[in-house]
Each structure stands twice: as structure tokens, then as C-alpha cells.
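SAMPLE LOG
Freezer: B-3
Tube label: C17
Construct: single chain, 263 aa
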Amino acid sequence: MSLYVFDLDGVIYRGGKLLPGVKEALSFLKKRGEEICFLSNNSTLSRVGYLKRLARLGIKTHLANLFPSSYLAAIYFTQNGERKKGKVSIIGEKGLFEELRGVKIKIASNTEDVDYVVVGMDRKFNFEKLCLAHKAILKGAKFIATNIDLTFPVEEGTLPGAGAMIKAIEASTGKSPLLLGKPEIFGIKMVMKKKGYSPENTIIIGDRLETDILAGKRVGVTTILVLSGITKREDLKKAPTSLQPDYVISSLKELSSLHLPIH
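STRUCTURE (predicted):
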């Protein structure tokens, strides 16, 4: 039995549209007795939000199988007593607020006197929010990023991602954030720990070389790149050896034809 860790945006869906072969691939793995989890850099929804979103697309799973970066932020704060007592300012959307409130983190309405500034995707990001983050970080607040994806895939093309906002804060403060999402291994290690798997029997499936595949390489799991999201075949040709995945498929339709080791 192996653990299959799927990204969401660009792998399972684009925007509100389920991608080809998804249901068949998940059904194939379930019938074979494999365990399936979802690890997403997208912090806009909480686990409950993603559970509902996947259900609308006809995919049933459980909260325990969902690891969006909004939830990784909650894990980060609850891992340490001092962090849990800190006051947090959030630049982000509903998911990040829900997950941090769910673990009783103190969320400040202003950023004048906070210990942490947590930044995720925020479709209402503006100059005022940039100024608040800028001031708080320069006053000593720890800068935390859910992810640094510069874009994310939608039904047609891409939109700016959390990384675009984080770059603005980095540029104005001269400070780099602590990163929770991929390519950092915090998330993938957490999934394996909670599910009881080792790198030898874990497979990560993602659409980005510089996040999903790099995270997989860093932790030593099997990596599968699916070309239904951000990375295209021409990007793969230009990529260094360190970012080359173990397997490449055009869509999840091809997953069942891969000769993956069965543990």
C-alpha cells in the first residue's frame, strides 16, 4: 500500500472545472487499496472549504486527507507554545482565517503590535495591506508565507498567486519570509507523519517543477509531473536535472498505465 499525495490546482481541477481522468485515476487507486491525500499551496480555503469544493466536483474524501497551506499555518502555530500565544496579522482569504481561528490563534485587526504577519493569496490585496505588513515586519514581526507561487491556473490561463503579493512585501521590507508550502518539505513531511508512511512508499503528483517536484525530490519520494497545470513540456526540456520528475504524464488519464512500484 502506498500514499499518493495530489496537488489540487492544475492537477485535480482548473478554476471550477474538473480535469480529464481525475475520477478514473482516484477510483483506480482506491480499488488497488492505495491511500490518497491532497496537499495544496493554495490557502484561500480551509479544509472544510476544500471538502465542499471537491464534493461539488463529485470527489468524496475526508478532512483528515486534506492539507491546504491554510491548515499548515495552523499546524505551525500549534506546534510550539510560544507561537500559539503570539498575536497574528493575516493578509489572506477566508481559509487562512478559518484555520487559525479554529486553533484559537489571536488575530489582530491592526498590525501595529503583532508578533507574526502571515501572508497567503488575497484577491483584495492593496496598498493599504502592503503598508500594514511593511510596518509590522519592520517593527520586528515574523514574516510567514503560506506559499510563494507567482501564479495559479484557472480554466483559461493563469492569475497572479500569493507569491506576487509576497514579492511586494519582500521588496519593501528587505526581509524574506519563512515558507510553509512547497517546495519546503514541512507539508509533505506532515502528511507522511500523520498517515504513517515513509518516503519509500509515498508518491507526490503535481503540476509545478519548482514546488511539487522539488518538494518531492527534497524529501526523497517518487515524483509524478502532470502537464495539465502550470508546467509545459517545453519547460521540462529546459529544467535542470535536479527538477526532473521520475514520471511525466499529460493528464491523470495516464496514471493507471504507469508501472509504479507497489509496496
